[in-house]
Amino acid sequence: MEVEVSLRVDGRQRRLTLDTRTSLLDALRERLGVTGPKKGCDHGQCGACTILLDGRRVNSCLALAVAHDEAEITTVEGLADGDTLHPLQESFVRHDGFQCGYCTPGQICSAVGMLTEAEAGWPSAVSADLTAPVELTDAEISERMSGNLCRCGAYAGIVPAIAEVAR
Fold first, then answer.
1. Contacting residues for 100 by C-beta, under 8 A, at least 6 apart
2. Are 95 and 68 members of one domain?
3. Alpha carbons 165 and 101: distance in angstroms, whole number
4. In terms of residue numbers, what domain contains 46?
């Protein structure tokens, strides 16, 4: 069965006719040509497909497109303002927060969402005091980013890149 879905992707309204089983990841990559989100595991375990869905980070391989009609989607491509990179994108470059780069779009989108969560005061599993303001230590950043895996092990650059922007 196919249905019509409207998505606002990186600031641009897009209408698609999709099979009801189509994931947001497949709609973005295969139907709209948005290749920032990557298909890593296709099971929601690696985070390579992370996007911002209505401002919150989501594994797009697990989200059905039909469930998000009229949603606002931001991918790594939509974070930059023209030729001006998002501060996290700049920081990843400065801190060499990538090697092969496959996970980088998901890492950056996840970091943007994570910073929003921390700013809102959401605690994590390593938050010492659940009522205190969130302090983004390296341990806190690592815990909050644990859903995004890097096979190359570029964490030595990823955590400082996020910390620089957070602090």
1. 151, 152
2. no
3. 20
4. 2-79
Say if residue 93 is in the same domain as residue 61. no
pTM exceeds 0.85: yes
Residue 149 has pLDDT above 90, yes or no: yes
Taking the C-alpha atoms of residue 96 and residue 74, their distance in angstroms, rounded to an integer, is 23
DSSP helix/strand/coil, 15: strand
| 7-31 residue pLDDT tens | 999 999 999 999 999 999 999 999 9
130 has a pLDDT exceeding 90: no
Residue whose C-alpha is closest to residue 154's, from 115, 112, 111, 103: 103
The helix, strand and coil proportions of the chain, stated in percent and rounded to the nearest 5, come to 35, 20, 45
Q: For residues 111 and 95, is the Cβ–Cβ distance under 8 A?
A: no
